Amino acid sequence: MNTLLAALGITALFSHTPVQNQGKPQTPKRQIVIAHRGASAYLPEHTLPAIAMAYQMGADFIEPDCVLSKDNIPIVVHDTYIDTISDVATKYPTRKRKDGRFYAIDFTLAELKTLAISERFDPTTGKAVFPNRFPIGIPGFTIPTLAEEIELIQGLNKSTGKNIGIYPEIKNPEWHRSEGRDISKAVIDVLWKYGYKTKADKCYVQCFDFAETKRLRNELGWNGLLIQLTTPNADKESSTDYDKLLQPSGLDEIAKVADGIGPWINQLIEGVVDGKLKINAIAKNAKARGLQVHPYTARYDALPTFSKTFDELLQAVFVDVGADGIFSDHPDKVVVFVRKLNRKAQN
User: Residue 337 and residue 288: Cα distance in Å, rounded?
Assistant: First the structure.
C-alpha cells in the first residue's frame, strides 16, 4: 500500500479474492456526490491517496478514468497520453510518438509503475494547470490499475461498513480500436470480476461515445448502470453528434440503453440574461424520459462565468436545473452543501 495512505490516517483491507458488491437499485433519493478523479483538488488526480481522501470526505461515488497499458491492463489516468501527469519524458525520452506525446498504451504496467505521478501540468511549460493545488514534484505517487482502485474502495467499504460506489469512464474507445484494443471489454471484465454486474450494484459506467454506450448494453452485456456523457466536443472525444443527441429525439435514443446523462454544466446553464440564469430544457427533457442527470465538473477554484461562488454554482445545478448528482474536484465542499440542502428540504 502506498505509504501516503497511512499519512492520511486511512487504512484499508485488501484481498486477493474480489469482494462481491451488494446494494439496492441506485435510483438517487438525494443528490449524489461524485469525486472527480478522486479528491483531485487536494492530491494528484486518480492516485490511491486521492481516492482514499475522497472516500474519507464522504463522496458517494469515486470516478476512475480508464485507459489500457501495453499489456492490456486497465489503468486509471485521465488521458490516453501520460506526459501531463508524470515524468515519462525524463525517464523514457525516446518513447514518444511522432506527435511528441507519450501514450500509456506504449508502456507495460511494470514500466508505468516506475513513473512518478504529480499534479497535472502543461508539458511544454512545466507549470501546474491549477497553481494553487498540490505541489509538483512531491514523490510517492504512482499510477493505479482499475483493479487496485476497486480493491481499495471495497476494502474501505468492508472496514468502515459503508458502501461507496465507483463510476468508471471508458476513455476514447474509438482511439483504442485504432490501436487494435477493446478498452470496453477490458474494463467490463474487471468490473464483473469484482462483483459489479447489475443495476443493484453501486457502479455507474460512463462513456462519451454513444455508439460505444449502445455496444456496452447491447453487445458486451453490461447490465449495470450506464451514463451517456456529452460535451461540446472541442476535445474531439468521439464522432458522436452531441447537439443532436441532446435534442428530445436523441434523448429518446439514450433512454433506450442508458440510465442517465452526464453533460458539461454549461450545456445546461447557458449563462445569465437580465440577471437571471438561462437554463435550457435539456435536463427537464432528460428527466421526463426517466434519465438521471449528473453534470460535470464543479470546481471551487475554477467557477463558470454564471456563478460568483461555489455555493451559487451548486444551487444553480441542484435546485434550478434539478440535477441528481454532480462531478466535483472538491467532493468535501459538495457533501457539505448537499447536507445543508437536504436539511432545508426536511424542515
Answer: 26
* Residue spans per domain, the chain: 3-346
Q: Which residues are catalytic?
A: 36, 78
pLDDT tens digits for 96-148? 999 999 999 999 999 999 999 999 999 999 999 999 999 999 999 999 999 99
Largest distance between two CA atoms of the chain: 63
- CA neighbor of 112 nearest in space, from 149, 148, 73: 73
Separation of alpha carbons 299 and 315, rounded Å: 14
Q: What is the pTM of this model?
A: 0.92
Read off the C-alpha cell for 158: 468492508
- Strand ranges in the chain using DSSP code E only, listed in sequence order: 32-35, 61-62, 65-68, 74-76, 165-166, 169-170, 204-207, 225-229, 260-262, 269-273, 276-279, 292-293, 325-328
Q: Give CATH superfamily name and number for 3-346.
A: Phosphatidylinositol (PI) phosphodiesterase (3.20.20.190)
pLDDT at 342: 87
